[in-house]
Amino acid sequence: MNLFYLLPFVVGICGVLQGVLNRRMAAEWGLGWVVMWNTLIVLVLTAVVIAMGLYPGKIQWGQLKWWHFLPGLFGFVIVLCIPLSISRIGALSSFLIIISSQILVSGAWDKFVQGVDLSWTRILGASLALAGAWLATK
């Protein structure tokens, strides 16, 4: 088995645990401070990874494009919105909606950006996953 299939599994676990722990921390500190704390930890760990030379490269400041700011914005939205969602509709409903939206957007990305055809098996699999998510929220 390709070990890279474990990475999304780990991300899924971390996403749920981060969301529920951020919700608890936000109840004590306030969500703004939790977002700041998470950002600080990401910054420090990223600096360590770069200092270790694990991912060499450099920013080409003169070649920044408008869309280079989007991943950071999206990360901020994720860290801000997941605990809010969990606090209002619960962890299961929140993550089922997240997964459903990820399935839809990733299918559209594959089709329209990557040029990957959406076979009937991929459409059926995505539809079954979406139906399962819908059923689990009932």
Residue share in β-strands: under 5%
Averaged pLDDT: 89
Q: Tally the helices: what do you get?
A: 5
Report the helical percentage.
over 70%
What is the count of distinct domains?
Answer: 2
Measured on Cα atoms, how large is the radius of gyration? 18 Å
Separation, N- and C-terminal Cα atoms? 35 Å
Indicate the topology.
Elements: H1 6-29, H2 31-51, H3 70-89, H4 91-114, H5 120-136
Helix pairs in contact: 1-2, 1-3, 2-3, 3-4, 4-5
Please tag this protein with its features.
mainly alpha; 2 domains; single chain; 0% strand; 138 residues
Q: What do these coordinates show?
A:
The protein is mainly α. Helix content is about 75%, strand content about 0%. The mean pLDDT is about 90. The chain starts with 5 loop residues before the first helix and ends with a helix. The protein has five helices and no strands. The protein folds into two domains: about 50 residues, no CATH class; about 50 residues.
Can you describe this structure in just a few lines?
The chain is mainly α and 138 residues long. The chain is built from 5 helices and no strands.
